[in-house]
Design goal:
The complex is a heterodimer of chains A (402) and B (403). With 402 residues, chain A is α+β, with helices and mostly antiparallel strands. Chain A has 3 domains: 16-115, Acyl-CoA dehydrogenase/oxidase, N-terminal domain (Butyryl-Coa Dehydrogenase, subunit A, domain 1), CATH 1.10.540.10; 123-221, Beta Barrel (Butyryl-CoA Dehydrogenase, subunit A, domain 2); 242-392, Up-down Bundle (Butyryl-CoA Dehydrogenase, subunit A, domain 3). Chain A contains 12 helices and 8 strands. In chain A, strands 1, 2, 3, 4, 5, 6, 7 and 8 form an 8-stranded mixed β-sheet that branches. In chain A, a hairpin with a 2-residue loop joins strand 4 and strand 5. The model of chain A is unreliable at 1-7 (pLDDT under 50). Chain B is an alpha+beta fold and 403 residues long. Chain B contains 12 helices and 8 strands. Chain B has helices at 17-26, 28-41, 46-55, 75-86, 88-104, 109-116, 243-246, 249-271, 286-319, 325-350, 363-374, 382-393; strands at residues 124-127, 133-138, 141-151, 159-168, 171-181, 186-188, 202-212, 216-218. In chain B, strands 1, 2, 3, 4, 5, 6, 7 and 8 form an 8-stranded mixed β-sheet that branches. In chain B, strand 2 and strand 3 form a beta hairpin. The chains are: A alpha+beta (402), B alpha+beta (403). The A-B interface holds A 262, 266, 269-270, 280-283, 285, 287-293, 295-297, 299-301, 303-304, 307, 329, 332-333, 335-336, 340, 381-382, 384-390, 392-395 and B 263, 267, 270-271, 281-284, 286, 288-294, 296-298, 300-302, 304-305, 308, 330, 333-334, 336-338, 341, 382-383, 385-391, 393-396.
């Protein structure tokens, strides 16, 4: 095996505090570009340049490839800060970053093929559901499918696509297949309510051969550390169960977006007074209560996500695989944190009055973004609140990849 | 030497954090079994009080030099949380006695000597949510009068911390928490209430009682930092947290633990239940799962909010940092929201108990009453504390002399 190429920029010495400070420093620029970014339906080129420059796409890439290899808490704190500037940008960053994290699970040959060629490679995905189908052939899999919601696909070199592997009618595996952009087509169906700048277009692939080492079984990502990449990436951060916690980075976007709504609202309301009586808006207790209730919800949501990330990291470091109930509690928390964040945005948008419906009013986009992102399956409290409830009540919950 | 009551005087200075929480957890079955009797008695049961004394838990935040554990402030969240899983009233009364030990460490050492020197297990009640008393300065101390309601644990108390406004003519000149001995105040048995009946939160009345200066703690010296008289002998940053910011966290933990008790009892009960006509398992209804999940998520959020406040307070104290008004109010906002979430959790669970849930014999019924009774405490009111932070966040000025 070749060592990572010399001469590439390395971020291996950047710690969590420095990375979060770097993310925070991007907020004013992101805020000023957010409307244009939304109109472009893809990240702004200057934003991409900032992200590459600061290494903020590589905070969960292994150090041996020049990444920061930060603790899993980075997947909360960094997207949360970036989302204060632009939810779509934060969402896309989370995707790129967690796919670097996920690539560390793959056979080292896949890492060599991608990071050996370019450690800054951008990887999109279609893994929320296994929308593809595959069959086993000699040396790999033949894969077809249509995956929607592939965030950040436009500038991506690669794509991780979930597929159900069947032998006849029988499901024998769930594989995440790494396809090069030359192997799939992008369908521009990204005309949506919110999160427009994530460019989450659909991708389509037909009978693509994917060699074994570019596929990762969902059964090897459940926290036992038995994935192929464990040989070269032994750090605990790569041992967290994927299906348990991989949506947390996106839930952090919901929280950061709500925090932005709070900051923009406070800024705006501070100086306002009512038209007829001239009373200061902030002296109305109804206004204070909406602001207070938003603040409390954001704090609760943030604490839930961070606590899960810290617990997940600790379990991984101790080599302990959490129980099904523990895994489902973590998923329940991601969904509830998003519920709280959405409630916070609604409380704040609801007091913007008719100004709040203008496209030019910043909270309007935040409101659309909040509701668009909360529609992600990982944040459905109906699904994840009840799954934990069932197990807490002594029932059985079976999911092959959990 | 024996303490009054014949109990051998013990030191708990060697008990660590994990052990204290484990001891609290171990008491849950006893408390759960005695919860109905505690409520009926209207006060701590003797066997429950004895078990708490033996475990040393009343003394989690008493200075080690008095035989206390002097644990991190977080213990005032984690221990009452565990106890409340068994009995909210016991947890609440416990939280009061335990935090008053913590507060006594702020008093002049002569007061500590008078109380703990005579009995380190002394039970101290209070009337401090509002300064309901009035005082005037006299030579060497204060003359204090007043009626204070909601003095939790007062029937068993040896002492009582009673807040009073000090006036000179019409002018307010100070805020003092006056330590009165049981012989100096009378109890009014007015504790006939919706819930939290086992806390014995009767009213106390005192008339023209002389309180020496060293037993009258200046509330303004308890806003964070080491400006209180007891700081000379009790140097641990534990005692330097702002009282008005974190003084209610022990009872916030009671709310979260009470909700957790409701969740555990509900799961236990619903696990085996089926519907009367179709025989369908209750737990297979997604509506049931969602109420359970909704409660579980809220309790987790409530607990994290409560504990995060205590941890931040300890951090501030350890660093000698005096938080801004907005930072102080954010902690109080979070505490009130934690109680809101806990009440919502209980309501979700009680709401699926159906008509069984109205029987006095149905355990969730008491928990439901307890949740709503404790949520009425002024410090836990989101209307007040949510809006105070909101005003500060909007650039307005919040005036509270004791914050």
């Amino acid at each position: 095996m070749n060592a990572p190429r010399e001469g590439r920029r390395s971020f291996a010495d950047v710690d969590l505090d420095e990375a979060v400070a770097g993310a925070r420093a991007l907020v004013p620029g992101l805020r000023s570009r957010s409307a244009a970014t939304e109109a472009a339906r893809d990240l702004a080129p200057e934003t991409m340049a900032d992200l590459h420059r600061t290494g903020l796409l590589r905070f969960c890439q292994p150090r041996r490839w020049g990444g920061m290899e930060l603790p899993f808490l980075s997947q909360i704190d960094i997207p949360l800060e970036i989302a204060r500037g632009c939810a779509s940008t934060a969402w896309t960053v989370s995707n790129y970053a967690i796919h670097h994290w996920l690539l560390a699970f793959y056979d080292e040959r896949a890492q060599e093929e991608i990071w050996g060629a370019d450690p800054d490679a951008l990887i999109a995905s279609g893994i929320a559901y296994p929308q593809g189908r595959g069959r086993k052939v000699d040396g790999g899999y033949v894969v077809s499918g249509h995956w929607n919601f592939s965030s950040g696909v436009t500038p991506s070199e690669w794509n991780m696509l979930g597929a159900v592997i069947r032998d006849g009618d029988k499901v024998i595996d769930h594989r995440i297949c790494l396809l090069h952009k030359s192997q799939y087509e992008v369908i521009d169906d990204w005309q949506v309510l919110g999160m427009r700048a994530t460019g989450s277009r659909s991708v389509k692939a037909t009978d693509v051969f994917v060699p074994e080492h570019r596929t990762l079984s969902g059964y090897q990502c459940r926290g036992a550390g038995d994935f192929p990449g464990a040989r070269v990436n032994p750090s605990g951060v790569f041992r967290l169960p994927v299906a348990m916690i991989s949506s947390h980075c996106l839930a952090a976007v919901a929280v950061g977006n709500a925090q932005a709504a709070l900051e923009l609202t406070c800024e705006h309301v501070k100086g306002r007074s009512t038209s007829y009586t001239g009373a200061s808006m902030r002296d109305f207790q109804a206004v204070q209560l909406r602001v207070g209730a938003a603040g409390a919800r954001i704090e609760a949501a943030r604490l839930m996500l961070r606590n899960d990330a810290v617990n997940g990291q600790r379990w991984a470091d101790e080599g302990r695989v959490p129980t099904v109930e523990e895994k489902l509690a973590v998923k329940r928390n991601a969904a509830y944190a998003t519920v709280l964040a959405t409630e916070a945005v609604d409380l704040l948008h609801g007091m913007a009055g008719a100004n709040g419906i203008y496209d030019s009013y910043p909270i309007q986009r935040l409101f659309r973004d909040a509701h668009a992102l909360a529609a992600h399956y990982g944040f459905s409290f109906d699904a994840h609140g009840s799954a934990w409830g069932l197990v807490a009540l002594g029932g059985t919950f079976a999911s092959p990849t959990l | 030497m024996n303490a009054p009551g014949g109990r051998p005087r013990a030191s708990f200075a060697g008990i660590g954090y994990a052990e204290a929480v484990a001891r609290a957890r171990a008491l849950v079955p006893l408390l759960r079994e005695r919860a109905a009797a505690t409520e009926a008695r209207g006060d701590l049961l003797p066997e429950v009080e004895e078990a708490l004394h033996e475990s040393g838990l009343f003394r989690i935040c008493q200075p080690r030099r008095w035989g206390g554990m002097e644990l991190d402030f977080l213990a005032l969240c984690d221990v009452p949380y565990e106890l409340a899983r068994g009995c909210a009233s016991t947890s609440w009364t416990f939280g009061n006695y335990a935090i008053h030990h913590w507060m006594l460490a702020m008093y002049d050492e002569r007061a500590q000597e008078e109380v703990w020197g005579a009995n380190p297990d002394a039970r101290i009640a209070s009337g401090i949510a509002y300064p309901q008393g009035r005082a005037r300065q006299v030579d060497g101390g204060y003359l204090v009068s007043g009626t204070w309601n909601f003095s939790s644990g007062s029937p068993l108390s040896d002492w009582n911390m009673l807040a009073a406004l000090v006036r000179e003519g019409d002018r307010v000149t100070g805020y003092r928490m006056c330590l009165l001995h049981r012989s100096e105040y009378e109890l009014l048995d007015d504790w006939q209430v919706l819930g939290m009946r086992g806390t014995g939160s009767q009213s106390v009345r005192a008339t023209d009682v002389f309180v020496p200066e060293h037993r009258a703690l200046d509330t303004l010296a308890c806003r964070g930092g080491a400006g209180f008289p007891g700081a000379r002998t009790n140097t641990n940053p534990l005692y330097q947290l702002p009282l008005a910011v974190l003084g209610a966290h022990c009872i916030v933990a009671t709310a979260a633990g009470n909700a957790q008790g409701a969740l555990e009892l509900t799961c236990e009960h619903v696990k085996a239940r089926t519907t009367s006509y179709t025989g369908a398992s209750m737990r297979d209804f997604q509506a049931v799962q969602l109420r359970t999940g909704g409660a579980g998520a809220r309790i987790e959020a409530a607990r994290l909010l409560c504990n995060a406040g205590a941890e931040r307070g300890m951090q501030w104290a350890a660093q000698g940092y005096l938080p801004t008004v907005e930072e102080r109010l954010a902690i109080k906002r979070d505490a009130a929201y934690a109680v809101t979430l806990s009440t919502e959790a209980v309501d979700l669970l009680h709401g699926m108990a159906g008509a069984n849930g109205i029987y006095d014999s149905y355990p969730i019924q008491r928990i439901f009453r307890d949740a709503h009774a404790l949520g009425a405490h002024y410090q836990l009111t989101f209307d007040v504390h949510g809006s105070a932070w909101g005003l500060a966040a909007l650039g307005g000025e919040v005036k509270n002399p004791v914050l």
